[in-house]
Amino acid sequence: MVVNSVHWFRKGLRLHDNPALQEALNGADTVRCVYILDPWFAGAANVGINRWRFLLEALEDLDNSLKKLNSRLFVVRGQPTDVFPRLLKEWKVTRLTFEYDPEPYGKERDGAIMKMAQEFGVETIVRNSHTLYNLDRIIEMNNNSPPLTFKRFQTIVSRLELPRRPLPPITQQQMDKCRTKMADNHDQLYSIPSLEELGFRTEGLPPAIWQGGESEALDRLNKHLDKKVWVANLEHPRVNTCSLYASPTGLSPYLRFGCLSCRVLYYNLRELYMKLRKRCSPPLSLFGQLLWREFFYTAATNNPNFDRMDGNPICVQIPWDQNPEALAKWAEGRTGFPWIDAIMTQLRQEGWIHHLARHAVACFLTRGDLWVSWESGMRVFEELLLDADWSVNAGSWMWLSCSAFFQQFFHCYCPVGFGRRTDPSGDYIRRYIPILKDYPNRYIYEPWNAPESVQKAANCVVGVNYPKPMINHAEGSRLNIERMKQVYQQLSHYRGLSLLASVPTIQEEAEPPMTDESQTSSGPAQSPLSRSKPSSPSSSCPTFAESPSPTTAPTQTSSLGQRRKAPREGGRKSEEEEREEAGGEERMEEDVEQDEERMEEEPSEETAGQQQ
């Protein structure tokens, strides 16, 4: 019997460790490698130009690798349900293979294609290689429900066998046994489209910092593994200015698109560790970021509403505000806080930001300052982040907004102090917010505090050349802590209720900035949170009372319970007061930093490998 195979690429854009592709080649007479792309979807989907460029580069690299094996990639335009009936007939297909997709949308799509293939008498073979473990097995071992704490997840994983070892790359000998004749007009019929063909404008588009494709992924992996000290000692480097820029060893986009196998990364780390530590088995913590990726996949695999509040059984129904104006300022880097604006500018320009930068902007949008729903932030990340992954993206946003997985809501990131501790010189700010480049270090993170003469000398007057802060952070974070405290007090299952009595009303912050609503830095401005329209919580899950208004909120105090000193006349503080406040801010940031050290084994939006 003649065996005509089609391997359907979706994620898993690689020739190494691709068990489904190996199945397509096994005993086949012909093999065609297909990628289905819907040009209409490209224009309608919430995916930005950087992500599309990365995907097209990955497809080009895959096609070039197949050319070396005397084969090609068939890029077919259309929807899978429309494309496959024609291809199955035209190519007389007898076998269809593809990588298992654990996400709800993918499972529904693949189920429809498998049913169609059965009607055509086509054998379908599906193999898992996008995750380390069988997610259904993890759920089964947890009484048929996904574990919703990382500790529980680790306990289950520790009882499982090691992940299957990765398979070697496809060879020339394998491909020669099932060589398929290519049409002379292959490039005309099945070529990879350009960004222009997909409707994107490319004038002024800077060169890609992240080059898509398996070849680049493997090259980065080799560089990544050269950092033997980190692997041997389980040391995570302290975050500094250099950490904030894209790294030549970063791997997260390559894992997301499957240009790099997670099993290849896992076993390379494991074997290098054992070699350096004299055959000592590595602890689970070595694979922390990979395991968080698995954790979110497991939590999402049977939850089609994982990316929204409505109908999501694991999501706390927090009554977030509807504030399109605040969301737009955040997304476009116009908040008036240089640290936040620089991060969002880097994200829009390059498609990547460090995982602690993701924490900072996510906290600022949600529970920290603006009280805007995590769903809105998730959609912005989905558009702009190269490594945005449906399960990991949604899970991280729920976590960072304290909507699921995490309950220490009383630690907020200071949009001044956190950045200053990471990059005291402000070089990161100057790179992405060049209008502020001539500000002295003292004021680079809070230009509103600079004297007028300094602002004019820097050719950047706050409120004219650069926006005033859109919110009083100290007031907004205080209000939001009270809001979140009220929400969690109504959760009967909240294990941290005993901590609520000790939750500080406010944590020590930098000097409250002047905002869009104020003319000077003296006196608190009214928070836009109090004027925003609250979103309607889901009717299918428990809801909570409205948040306290600013008029009923407790008196502003420091984290030590002491009343704050009023600002000096004119809004500016003495050097002594600034030193006192800086000390308080530093203590608060040290608390958050200690949390971050603990959370190196907790989720970040990016996947494994990027933080090193």
From TrEMBL:
SUPFAM superfamilies: Cryptochrome/photolyase FAD-binding domain, Cryptochrome/photolyase, N-terminal domain. Residues 516-525 have a biased composition (Polar residues). It holds the Pfam family FAD_binding_7. GO terms for molecular function: DNA binding; FAD binding. Residues 3-132 form the Photolyase/cryptochrome alpha/beta domain. The record marks 320, 374, 397 as: Electron transfer via tryptophanyl radical. Residues 587-605 have a biased composition (Acidic residues). Binds 1 FAD per subunit. Residues 567-586 have a biased composition (Basic and acidic residues). GO terms for cellular component: cytoplasm; nucleus. Residues 527-559 have a biased composition (Low complexity). Residues 509-612 are annotated as: Disordered. Its cofactor is FAD. Keywords: Chromophore, FAD, Flavoprotein. GO terms for biological process: circadian regulation of gene expression; entrainment of circadian clock by photoperiod; negative regulation of DNA-templated transcription. It comes from the Eukaryota. PROSITE patterns: PHR_CRY_ALPHA_BETA. FAD binds at residues 289-296, 387-389. Belongs to the DNA photolyase class-1 family. This is Cryptochrome circadian regulator 2. It comes from Sparus aurata (Gilthead sea bream). The gene is CRY2.
